[in-house]
Amino acid sequence: MIRITSAIVIQDTELHFDFVTASGPGGQNVNKVASAAQLRFDASASATLTEAVRRRLAVLAGRRMTRDGVIVIQAQRFRSQEQNRRDAIERLVGLLREAATPPAFRRKTRPPRAATERRLEGKRHTAARKKDRVTTDE
């Protein structure tokens, strides 16, 4: 059981792992050992995710989410299968935590009247200075 937030808990049975051969360094071992972890999490079938979290998760996941609502995370940073498995879980947890926090509400604000006056006065001052310049004809 993985606790994401106080309201969101992912059961271990919801995570499905496939292990495949990784690309990159590793010598001959890389061709023999399936050390890359491929994590699949069905977000559309998860009971603890709200609809709002699912929508934010779909936006955050991007290409990592299939049309069926399954998130696929490929982890092959390490040479060890267990380390890649942990890495995939950590990345999923980070993604879910980010999706669980709602975006901050933006309150529209206006600049104070005094700031607007200062800005306009500065513009008037600059315009007057440019107007008073003497042009020399050669």
List its traits.
138 residues, alpha+beta, Double Stranded RNA Binding Domain, two-stranded antiparallel sheet, 4 helices, 5 strands, 39% helix, elongated
SSE inventory with pairings:
Blueprint: E1 2-3, E2 9-10, E3 15-20, H1 29-32, E4 36-42, H2 51-61, E5 70-75, H3 81-100, H4 113-131
Antiparallel strand pairs: 1-2, 3-4, 4-5
Helix pairs in contact: 2-3
- At the first level of CATH, the class is Alpha Beta
CATH topology: Double Stranded RNA Binding Domain
Give a count of the beta strands, DSSP E runs of length 2 or more: 5
Strands side by side in the biggest sheet: 3-4-5
Gyration radius, in Å: 28 Å
Low-pLDDT runs:
none
Q: On the 0-100 scale, what is the average pLDDT?
A: 85
Q: What percent of residues are in strands?
A: 15-25%
First-last Cα distance: 84 Å
Shape: elongated
| N-to-C series of helices and strands | EEEHEHEHH
Question: Overview of this structure, please?
Answer:
By secondary structure, the protein is α+β, with helices and mostly antiparallel strands. It has one domain: Double Stranded RNA Binding Domain, CATH 3.30.160. Helix content is about 40%, strand content about 15%. It is built from 4 helices and 5 strands. Strands 3-4-5 form a 3-stranded antiparallel β-sheet. A two-stranded antiparallel sheet has the order 1-2. α2 (about 50-60) packs across α3. The longest helix is centred in the middle third of the chain and has 20 residues, at about 80-100. The chain is elongated. The mean pLDDT is about 85.
